[in-house]
């Protein structure tokens, strides 16, 4: 240790400053751009708030977001199950391309490999989009009842009420409530996700496999992810079975038995089993969401209605267009994703209340 200190003292100052500058540059690239946990940067921002982007200034209480590549992608600080989902998607495709694609090109048709690859890329891009995009997070601190430094003032009485808006009939009420965490009046169909600790517009559910909420801005992407994944699994199973049972279709095959076939094509056999097992959960989820979207009802609304109003009215809300085709069209194709209400890559303006830490209102804490 002593020798090291000695060497450090002998270094010319300019060399030290270059090293420090390089370290600062790498630190800036790594923590301020590649992987940014805003909670770790708060102290740095107190000193220098110039040239900051919104994603670097997330001072709000209890937020768990982590941003990647300059705020382009985000996830939350939870068990990274979305990484596991990504691996489960990528691994079979890589095995297919390495071991089975050439056989299919030689014995059946290269177009089958192209079709599989196309559908797989669709599935994977939908997964990345649904997993890392903004699901419709609403900005915080928009409806503060008083100056934030005045902690003695109680929140107005109406902040405790559930306000009913005009609706079709008594069985399909539209209500709005104040969110005491986000300090906003939630628009209709908005709910607070306890995992993300944010209010999400048209929240469907928090998906642990995506590690993200499914809401207004990524609901249709999520639906297309399910459909493309199910299609991909079915196609992979068919292609694998074609390879395994090809010996039955040709008269002069060297392979005579099923055992010989799976010994010759072990990866195809593995992929056939994998794709059939992997099909079960996305298929069930797809059927469930086909059913819900045919009524234009979110998972959360359905479960909440089921508890409070029973089975008869659980599928009917004021947002139901009374047409299955219309509902399906709205959810799968026609619903605009809308713009992000918190553009993370925009420049930060000092004092922007959306990113400030505000204590819970006094009346809500009592
Ligand atoms: Zn909220
Ligand atoms: Zn969530």
UniProtKB/TrEMBL annotation:
Membrane topology summary: Multi-pass membrane protein
Enzyme Commission designation: 2.3.1.225
Keywords from the UniProt entry: Acyltransferase, Lipoprotein, Membrane, Palmitate, Transferase, Transmembrane, Transmembrane helix
EC class name: transferase
GO cellular component, one term: Golgi apparatus
Major location category of this protein: endoplasmic reticulum
Xref: InterPro entries: Palmitoyltrfase_DHHC, PFA4/ZDH16/20/ERF2-like
Example GO molecular function: protein-cysteine S-palmitoyltransferase activity
Transmembrane segments: 81-99, 111-130, 221-248, 268-292
Keyword Membrane: yes
Compartment annotation: Endoplasmic reticulum membrane
Catalysed conversion reaction: L-cysteinyl-[protein] + hexadecanoyl-CoA = S-hexadecanoyl-L-cysteinyl-[protein] + CoA
UniProt cross-references to Pfam families, sorted A to Z: DHHC
Record comment regarding domains: The DHHC domain is required for palmitoyltransferase activity.
PANTHER family: PALMITOYLTRANSFERASE APP, ZINC FINGER DHHC DOMAIN CONTAINING PROTEIN
Protein name: Palmitoyltransferase
Lineage: Eukaryota, Fungi, Dikarya, Ascomycota, Saccharomycotina
Name of the gene: Piso0_003179
